[in-house]
Structure formats: C-alpha cells, structure tokens
Design goal:
Strand content: under 5%
Number of helices: 4
Order of helices and strands: HHHH
Distance between the termini: 64 Å
Structural class: mainly alpha
Low-confidence stretches: 87-92
Shape: flat
Mean pLDDT: 79
Helix content: 55-70%
C-alpha cells in the first residue's frame, strides 16, 4: 500500500483496535500478566498514571525543602494506595507512625 491511508481506512483500523481492547478476554489477559509480574514495566506505569495521575515532571528547585518533601510524600502515599501484586509475594509496606 502506498501513501497515507484515507480517513475511512483509519476509522476502520481505529474501530478494530478499540474492539480488541474492549474485549473482556483481553482484559483478563492483561490482569493475568499483571498479577504474574509479566506485564512490561512501561505498561504498568501507564496504568498507574491513568489510575492515580502522573507524577510531576518538574520540581521547583527554589522551593523550600519542606515543599519538596511534601510533594515526595504525596506521591509515595499514592503508590501505597495502589493495588499490590500478590503473585510476587509483595505486600504493601506497613506505614510508620511518626
């Protein structure tokens, strides 16, 4: 095939891809790979970002140390709320009381 696909062909490809990802069998496959620790780290990170938001890309270095620590704690707390992967035997770390 030469050139750029036309809009109707792209729409068909898009619809096909959407159907594939909305298939319950695909969801089960992704879940199984996630629980077994076989999902690529990039995919797992993206799923975490969709679930809990992206971490900040830029941190103002002129901010106070207290502000930086606050940002770090916020994102650590988000990760602690994320589902654990039982297949690897990793449990959520116990929170320390300060």
């Amino acid at each position: 095939m030469k050139g750029t696909p036309n809009k109707s062909r792209l729409a068909g490809i898009s619809a096909w891809a959407r159907e594939m990802f909305e298939d319950p069998r695909y969801e089960l496959s992704v879940r199984a790979r996630l629980y077994k620790g076989r999902l690529p780290p990039q995919v797992e990170c993206k799923l975490l970002a969709y679930a809990f938001g992206e971490p900040p890309r830029d941190i103002n270095l002129n901010a106070s140390l207290r502000g930086i620590v606050s940002v770090v704690h916020e994102h650590v707390n988000r990760l602690e709320l994320a589902p654990t992967r039982g297949a690897r035997g990793s449990e959520s770390p116990e929170k320390e009381v300060h």
